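Figure 2 data, in text form.
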Amino acid sequence: MKKYLLLLLLILCLSLTACNKKTDMKLRIKESSWSGWTEGYEPEERTDDYNVVLGKKYSINSGKFKFKITKINRKYIEIKTEIPFSDKNDTINLNSKKTKFKVYLEKELKLTTPTTDAGDIYYITLIK
């Protein structure tokens, strides 16, 4: 009976640790915007670093950009956003329904709101 109890406690401890897995990696997120209406538009940009924690929910830019880290790997992490984003670098996919993205170590991921006329851009980089 003691063996089963110890095994159960070990499984519980491991599962709790996995849910809050911290790493030495950080997410660097640069917030920006764009506008097709204003000639010479200059966006205000802000860059912040965030600790990478598995299962943590993040709220960026006054809640406009919300996501959760769903997987941590040595070379990348996976995130799930609350709303769809376009991850095309040269254009914006206005029909994007994509909410799951991989962020690779030292490689910038560009997410743009799939909107016309104006929107938000998030440049996300996984760093050590």
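Caption note: Residues 23-127 form one domain.
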